[in-house]
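User: C-alpha cells for this one?
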Amino acid sequence: MDSMKKEGLPLVDPFKAERRLESAAASAMTKKGAYAALGYMLSAVLLVLFNKAALSSFSFPYVNVITLFQMLCSSVILYAMKSWKIISFTEGEAHSVTSNPVTLVPLKTLFRTLPLAVSYLLYMLITMESVRGINVPMYTTLRRTTVAFTMIVEYLLTGRKHSSYVVGSVGIIILGAFVAGARDLSFDAYSYSIVFVANICTAIYLASIARIGKSSGLNSFGLMWCNGIICTPILLFWTSFKGDLEAMMSFPYLYSRGFQAVMLLSCIMAFMINYYVFLNTTLNSALTQTICGNLKDLFTIALGWLLFGGLPFDLMNVVGQSLGFLGSCLYAYFKLKGK
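Assistant:
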C-alpha cells in the first residue's frame, strides 16, 4: 500500500499535457503555414513584376534567355540543397541516398518525366512571351481564364466533368475578363492571343503534373529538378541557334546594375514560387493555395497599375476585375464544399 501511495497519481494530467503539446504544435504549424502563404503571394507578385520590368521597362527582347537563366538558377539551387542533404527528390528518400551521381535521379524516372518537362518548357516560354505586350492588370485578368482551359483539358484527357456550380463560377470569371477588356478595344491581337495560348499550355502542364507527378514517385523538388536538367540543354541549344546569347552581349543595359538586379531577382522568384506552391499546399491545404492565388491577383493588379500603368481608370474595368475575383472565390468555395 505504501508503495502504491508513493507511486500515486501523477500531479500533472497527462492528457492535459498532451493536449497542450498538440495545441502548441498546431500553433507553430499555423504560424509556419501563414509564412508559406505570404511567401507564395509575395514571390508570385514579384515574379510577374520583375519579368515585366525586364521585358518592358528595360526593353530586353530575349525571352528565351530569361527562361534559360531561371532554369539554370533553379537547377543550381536544387543541386546545392540536394548535395547538402537539405532536401530529397522522392517521398521517403533518405537524404544520403543518391540514385545517380550526375542526374541525382534514376534515368528511368528521368525519361518518364520527359512529357512533363516538354510541357513545362512550353508553359514557361509562352507565359514569358505573353507578359511582354500587354499591361499587367489585363494580363492578370486574362490569365484567370486558365481555369476554363484546365477544365477542357481535364475533360479531354480524363473525361472528368464538373458540377453546374463550378461551371457557373468559371463562367463568371470569363465574363469578368470580357467586361474588363470591353473598353480596351485598341488591344494588340497578337498579345491577347499569346495570353490565351499560355492559358492552354498552363492547363496542359497542370494536367501533366497530375498524371506524371504521381506515377513517377517524385515530389515537387524532384519534378523541378527533372524539368531543369531536361529543359536547360534544349533551351541552351535553342538560344544559341537563334543567336540570342550572342546578341545579348550587345544589349545596352547588360552591365546596368538595375537590369542585373531585376534579372537576378526574377531568377530567384521563379524558384521560390515553385517552392512555396509545394510548401503552402503541404502545410495548409489546396484551398488555401487557391485563395492565395486569388489574393495574389489583387496585389499584382494594384502594383501593376502603380508601377507600369496601362489602362486608365475605368468603371467597366473595375467591374470586370471584381467579377473575375468573385468568380475565383466562388470556384474555391464550391470546390471546398464538394459541389
